[in-house]
Amino acid sequence: MKNLEGFSQVIGAIDRSHISIRAPSKIILIEKIYSDSGYANYDWLLVPYKDNGHLTQVQNHYNYIHSTTRIKIEQAFGLLKSHWRVLQNPIETNFKIVSHIVSCCYILHNICEEIIDEFDIISDQVLINNGTTSEVNIINDTERDLIADYIFSK
């Protein structure tokens, strides 16, 4: 896993942008989750130092790196949630499968970014109002064909 602004093994952040899941009854976490200062600092959760005006240079640097990392995670989750409907509501499945679902969304997103210059999102409401579902199906078929060709060529 790539280091992200000084933090290695970053798997997620808790804040206003997250991917909702059905919480498991028992949680065993090895990695840390990054959060804003609205949460307490637990052994599984990293929060920034509260800035009371007396932070050391090390603490200020930690807060900067922490904030940069958390913002990138929030942006990534926001982008994924805007493209993949499965991530917009709580994922009602076995906790062990959730990371695979999210990983698949990342992989599909990366394939789309690599193959298709512009990944247009057309809302269901626009399709209903305009009655253009047949045109969209043709576009989707073309995009699907591009993805199939890409996967086959690997």
Automatic annotation (TrEMBL):
Record key words, sorted: Hydrolase, Metal-binding, Nuclease, Nucleus
Domain of life: Eukaryota
Any one GO MF annotation of this record: hydrolase activity
Cofactor(s) it depends on: a divalent metal cation
InterPro entries according to UniProt: HARBI1-like (IPR045249), HARBI1_dom (IPR027806)
GO CC, one annotated term: nucleus
Residue ranges of every copy of the DDE Tnp4 domain listed in the record: 31-110
Any Pfam family: DDE_Tnp_4
Subcellular localization(s) per the UniProt record: Nucleus
PANTHER family: GH03217P-RELATED, PTHR22930
Family: Belongs to the HARBI1 family.
Protein name, as recorded: 908_t:CDS:1
Originating organism: Diversispora eburnea
